[in-house]
Amino acid sequence: MIRIVALLAVLAGCGPTLVWRGQSPDRRRSIEVVEHDGQYVVIDRVRGPTYDAIGLGALAFSADSRHLAYAARRGGQWRVVVDGREGAAYAGIGELVFSDDGGRVAYAAERGGQWFIVEDAVEGPPFDVLLAGTLRFSHDGKRLAYAAVRGDQTHVVVDGVEGPGTDGVGKLAFSDDGARVGYLARRGPAAFAVVDGVAGPPYETISELALSPRGARVGYVGKRAGSWHAVIDGIESTPWDLVAGLAFSSEGAHVAYAARKAQGDTALVLDGVRGTSYLGLRPASIAFGADRATPTFIALRADGYVVVHDGVEGPAFTEIRFPVLAARGSRWAYVAQRDGAWFPMIDGLARRAERWAGDPVLSADGRRVAFVVRRGADMTVMVDDVAHRFDLVLDGTLVFDPSGRHWGCVVGARAERRFYIVVDGVRRAPVDVDDAINAAILTRASGDSVVDNDEVLRGWVVAEVAKVTR
Known about the structure:
The protein has 470 residues and is mainly β. The chain is 6% helix and 51% strand. Strands 13, 14, 15, 16 and 17 form a 5-stranded antiparallel sheet that branches. Strands 30, 31, 32, 33 and 34 form a 5-stranded antiparallel sheet that branches.
């Protein structure tokens, strides 16, 4: 499905051939890779220098679309070009990432059979292998971490400082505020958590690691002698048959997880206190709302699944999708199925039954709510109980702008066989699905481990809605 135009210019006299085409995340900048006596990049209709080849696997925009970086080969050597400026020459270029604010860039480079990370043109220590998908900046862009292998030992490098060798590492992450960094490691039969360079006690295995968004708290789930424990700030819980879904509140004041003593006896443990027992509990659904002391989660009773919010159980359903919590305020929503019908549930109250309903979307302040439903042959976007009907709506593309005043999504027109972005119900811009696939490739190159087309399209809708606010 990826539109990479075949290079058919093998006959003398053929002109430039388009190799690849894409757009920046905000859709305000265009980029093309063109073949003609070599390859070159055209950004915003301005042609760059010609190289022997352009590396599409290392081509990325910054999140704010202001900066572009790509790998280019000339004379057998590769270099990274950032905003038109060439870096040093290497035998190969690998993963490339920007910081969230676009102010910094780091990439993997190879010389003489050894790999190292180049951060703002400064080379890090050499390794045999750099572990793909581990290169990351903290959200504030001030810190950088990655994992690499030398010999038979794996090391984590944080802010240029190489950590001790281990047999393997995983779950490398910064806290949201960048204050702490942690990962899981193994040495022989022992697994342990390492936070800010300090290793915790050994366990048989460790399944989860959680850093509070703020507040500098740490938690992980470890197994010893056949029992599981939640370890919060170094304090080990009582043994359980199973522990999962470890989650901190936004300020780190509260922590919750699902724990099971025996089959069919699962409960939420909040700040060390065990709650009501259920037949089951979905650990991945445990989430704290904005500045809330109690989490929302999905539990299984004998009569079906329920959402537990503020300690109160909602109605039972055959199936429930994960609840959505407002970034600010107290509003919450989810969709659930019973007797073949889907019910949008807003603040615990059911709206009319639908043939199908998509996940609700809340504005950041929680004042507005929208969701997609299927009615007859068409689909409808419900925004604050006002219906906007379309031939087709791509689920997962519905968004509000940060102010909550405007909304948008991607819709399809059957007669035209085309897709469009609509803002506040008005058609604004056509959408080329092939371009969305190409954009997903760029986003993968920028360091995200998993990117789907819906995520890219949702980003485009955000950008189009932003044009209205401007």
